[in-house]
Write a structure and sequence with these properties.
Elements lengths: L8 E2 L1 H8 L3 H8 L7 E3 L2 E5 H14 L6 H7 L3
Length: about 80
Amino acid sequence: MTETQRRACLTALDISEETGFSLPTVRNIMNRADFPAIRYGRRIIVPREAFEKWLAETAAKGQVNLKASNIKAAYGR
């Protein structure tokens, strides 16, 4: 995909293809409380610029924490 064809928002599949992470891993990341996702019912999209910023900040910290407590916090459990 060329620069002019890049969409403004990404889906889990888009993120999986761009990062090389498996789809289940991407879905876990998307459920984190600090992840910049927008939810429309069951659909989850991510603004590209927000994702790129989040990824850079997370990479600077050196890790992505996929602990269940982070995922549960996203759902208020």
